[in-house]
Amino acid sequence: MLRRQADTSGGGGSGLGKILSGYSIEVMPRTAAKVERFADLLPRGTRVYIAHIEGTPIADMVTTARRLRDEGYAAMPHVPARIIKDTATLEDWVRQYRDEAGVEEALLLAGGPREPHGDLHSAMQLLETGLFDKYGFRRLHVAGHPEGNRDIDPDGSSRQADEALLWKQSFSERTDADMAIVTQFFFDAKPVIRWSERLHALGITLPIHVGVAGPTKLQTLIKFAIACGVGPSLKVLQKRAMDLTKLMTPYEPFDVLGELAAYREAHPNSMIEQVHIFPLGGITASAKWANTQSNAVAEAGVA
Q: What are the protein's UniProt keywords (predicted)?
């Protein structure tokens, strides 16, 4: 059932469909194994990130990547620096992804553990190894934190996070890597818009893929948001939770996407390029929701 579509489409009724067009989504190997056919859920060619949770065997990651590629999808595995023992292990992983699964792209992250398993602890170090170029990876994404990240900047500033993105911008300019920034999910578009404008003023021009949470129960979403360190926009959810009528209905990202769509319509040169969906309520629910919005807006345009 479509809800509130007309007042959140952002610019002539087409903004929501445009910003969802070409969305990416993510899975874990154990959730991918439950999907009988990805073609039943996702448009062919969709970029599917593969989350590498600490403890997941690399064989499971490679198998999932190979399956996605075989079924016609762009597989983008996470490569979290802090769970990798050493450069030799990293090279083994990169080689397996390329040679055994045909993977050509990856999301490079510091990763969740506070204490690195070895010498690697940042996406910059992963890039500096040169291994992704050696094995022919053509697209590399990195993380962005519109609402800050206390692990990177304990003082609550954005100084170190900004410096890291400036370094990655420079890396993209001195290499032929096709790069983009993908963000943590959030619930208020305004801080993200201000962040994108501030990055541009600093000289960072990498495209931004904005992370949003797919449809899920509000209680589940709040739990994930707290665990993932979502910043000030968490207040949007907490305010919603105080309304008992809204507490009983699933969260859907109409408001945040509507505002982003309207902004992008008004600022066509914005760095905000597309949407990445975190399927916290399950990949089936998120994919069906995104496809429904895209298809409904497209059909309305034809009519």
A: Oxidoreductase
In a domain, 9, yes or no: no
The pLDDT value recorded for residue 174 is 94
- At residue 136, the pLDDT reads 96
CATH label of the domain that carries residue 24: 3.20.20.220
Q: What torsion do the CA atoms of 76, 78, 79, 85 make, to the nearest 10 degrees?
A: -130
Rounding to the nearest 10 degrees, give the CA dihedral for residues 42, 44, 45, 51.
30
Q: What is the CA radius of gyration of the chain?
A: 19
Please tell me the total count of domains within the chain: 1
pLDDT of residue 11: 38
**Domain carrying residue 196:** 15-302
Q: Is residue 4 part of a domain?
A: no
Answer whether 126's CB lies under 8 Å from 111's CB. no
Reported as type and span, the H/E element at residue 74 is strand 74-80
pLDDT at 4 (0 to 100): 32
Residues of the chain with pLDDT under 50: 1-13, 244, 298, 302-303
